[in-house]
Each structure stands twice: as C-alpha cells, then as structure tokens.
Amino acid sequence: MKILITGGAGYIGSHVVKALAEAGYEVLIYDNLSTGNKWSVLYGELIVADLSDKETLKKTIVKFKPDAIMHFAASIVVPESVRLPLKYYRNNTINTLNLLDVMLQCEVKKLIFSSTAAVYGMPEAIPVDENAPMNPINPYGASKMMTEMILRDMHLADNDFNYVSLRYFNVAGADKDCRIGQAYKESTHLITRALKTAKGQFEKLQIFGTDYPTPDGTCIRDYIHVDDIADAHILALKYLLDKGKSEVFNCGYGHGYSVREVVDTSKKVTGIDFKVEETGRREGDPPILIADNTKIKQGLNWEPKYDDLEYIIKTAWKWENSYPEKYS
Ligand code: UDP
Description:
The chain is of the alpha/beta class. Helices cover about 40% and strands about 20% of the residues. It folds into two domains: about 1-170 and about 225-250, Rossmann fold, CATH 3.40.50; about 190-220 and about 255-325, UDP-galactose 4-epimerase, domain 1, CATH 3.90.25.10. The structure holds uridine-5'-diphosphate (UDP).
C-alpha cells in the first residue's frame, strides 16, 4: 500500500512516516520544509514543494498513485495564530482545500487529517468527547474546524470519500532511539520550552497565568507521546483501507497535568533547577483540555503504550541533548 504524507518532514509527520515504513507501507513525503527538516525523513522519497503549488501536487499524486493520504502540513502555534490569522487560514484551510481538489481530480478517496483539541475551545464538560460542539477560541483551532467541516461535507456529497480526523491533544516526547524529535529552534510548546530553558538556551521559563480555575491555578493539558499518536494513525489507516467510513477521534490519554506539574517533572528529569517566572495569561488558552478517549479505544482498538509524563519528558530531554548536532 502506498501512502502520501504531507508535512512528513515535520515533528509528528516524521514519526508517522517512521511507523508506516516500519509497518511495511510505501511512503512518499510532500513537504515545503518551512518547519520540517530533511534529516527527519528516515524513510521514503521527499518532494520539496508547497501545497499551494497545485501543479506539482497533482503531478506527484498522478505519478505515485497513493491508496491514501495523510495530511500533517500545517501551522500549529496558537499564539502566532492570534497574531497572524491569515497565515493560519491560508496554510491550514486553503491549502487543505487545494489538496482535496487535487484528490478529487485524481480519485484518491481516503484521507487522514491532523486535527486538534483546539477545535473545542473551552469545552463545557471535561473530559471532552467528540460530540462536544466545536467552538474554537483562536484562529489555529478555527482553521482546523473549517477543514473538518469541509471534510464532512465532502463525505456527504460523495460517500466513497472517507476520512479520519484525529483531534490531537498535547503531543510531546521523541523517538526512543533518538533519531527524530521536535526541532523548532524557537519552540513555544511547554515541554520543549522547559527543556531548552534547562539547557540554558533561555534565561527562564514563563508560566502563563496562575489564576485559572484549576487546583494550582495553572492550565491543565493532556500530554500524549508522539509514538502513541503514530500508532493511532496506523490504526486509522487500516480502518479506512478496510472500507471504514468517515470518523472523528480524540487522541489523548484521558487525564492531564498542570503547567506547574510539567515544570516540576522537567526539573526532576533534567536534575536542573531552572528559573521560572509567573506571568500573565497567554491569549487563546483554555484552562483545561483533557480528552475522553473512549471512542478511539473502542473504534480503532487503540491502546496507549507511553502514558507516563516522566517517560515523555525523558525522551524529549534525550532528544534535546542530541539534535543540535544533527542540525549543524
Ligand atoms: N505554557 C507556559 N509557558 C510556556 C509555554 C506554554 O506556561 O513557555 C502553557 C500554555 O499557556 C498552556 C500550556 O502551557 O497553558 C500548554 O501550552 P503549549 O503551547 O505547549 O500547547 P497548547 O495547549 O497551546 O497547544
């Protein structure tokens, strides 16, 4: 089976490429390398191109003839999306529309889409299940919600077009063999930021908001190891290839940690008492996001293997200490 992976040189995409290739799938990666890296592509050929370039995209699909497409290519930073909304609607919504257009033209009818818990906004009930209304509070979540709506309508218009939308919670950690991991120099994500601060790359870690309605006043997130996310993609792909119909699944462990708990665990894992500063809230942050993962466990038989914050941070720390060499 042949799978085209957009954004396969990025953080999550590269872990899924690894899992796909090691499970025997033939992979082709389509990535503009805006945030991805060549060295992240452990398997398969890499086509360096943008999704706005429909001509190259079509040529690639016509030549490769994928059985399914996995679509990771996107901009993913919540605060940046608040500052630069058009970048998010262009990269995430409009570029997905381009991909869907070309898929229709080429009769490729199976898609796995990287969605996000950010589509829920501030959910009324925690843990949040897939039936909760989509009510995003930042452009990143809105750009992904719009894509989900487009996908839903495409399926309604043509029942043979089927997709699985995976709503990721907070993905973290790295490949256990330390070959790939998150490699944004200026990462804004909490775990990476904490570890880079431990390494001395930043003077201090800021905690954004200590007055949230949570037990310790800081935001709570459901952190999930990237290899468990990769497994979910393999299962979703098998489901679609087995003639499964369009579905939406949460990807999270079903429990969360506060920012303070993540900071404490990062200090424990690294053995470094890095400087922390409590500061005001960051725009666009919901207080608590925790997945109800019943549906993916039942529907895809997904069983998380790395539900352990210390393990997640240990793999990220190991990666953080090895990747600058790769970078150079
Ligand atoms: N956060 C923080 N300091 C940082 C980065 C993040 O306090 O330097 C907080 C952020 O406000 C949020 C949580 O950590 O409450 C997770 O943020 P992240 O950017 O990792 O993921 P998001 O939930 O926004 O996708």
